[in-house]
Amino acid sequence: MKALHIAVGLVLGLAVLAPVSAYVLDRAYGETVLPVARSAPEAVRANKALYEEGDSVAEIYGVPGERKMRVIFVSKDLLVTPSEDPKLRLLLINKQKGDNPLQVKTLYFVAWRVTAGLAAVSLLGLALLLFLRRRRKRSQSIPMATAPATVPATATATDSLS
Fold it and tell me: Is residue 97 part of a domain?
């Protein structure tokens, strides 16, 4: 019974830890980037030469994605901070090679599913604990049944009726 208490506590603790660890990983290793389908190095050099103030900086390096995203555990080789706009971080990806960076929203998606699963397991464990506790109390509160009183062998049938 004590081991079940510990197991339920550990599972509940892990359920709480999943989204917290996702948050910590996001803050420690996450970066907000604009994904860009990279162009060939020759095209990038030509685009830099043709760049004028007011043009899209991301288009120098390739075809930019629609919106920024937060990614985690990205190779520093794939990140570019353009000199034309130092506030912008570009993530050069090649979908044809299978570059699919891990997005932070995927991390949170998995963390909340893990939390839900572990919370369900801990609820089942709590239900089992309650069931076992009630069963033990019930068995302790019912007195042991005693053997019925026997009628002495010398007694007659009429004696037992009165």
Answer: yes
Q: Read off the amino acid at residue 115.
A: T
Report which residue type is found at 131: F
| Residue 133, domain member (yes or no) | no
In a domain, 83, yes or no: yes
Confidence of residue 71 (pLDDT cuts 50, 70, 90): very high
| Integer Cα distance of 95 and 99 in angstroms | 5
Residue 23, H or E segment:
helix 2-29
What is the pLDDT averaged over residues 61-78?
A: 94
| Domain enclosing residue 34, as ranges | 30-102
Q: Whole-prediction pTM value?
A: 0.71
Query: Are β-strands 90-93 and 30-38 bridged in parallel, bridged antiparallel, or unpaired?
Result: parallel
pLDDT of residue 94: 87
d(CA 84, CA 50): 13
Residue 7 forms part of a structural domain: no
How many domains is the chain built from?
A: 1
Name 30's bridge partners: 72
What proportion of the chain, given as a percentage, has pLDDT over 70?
Answer: 87
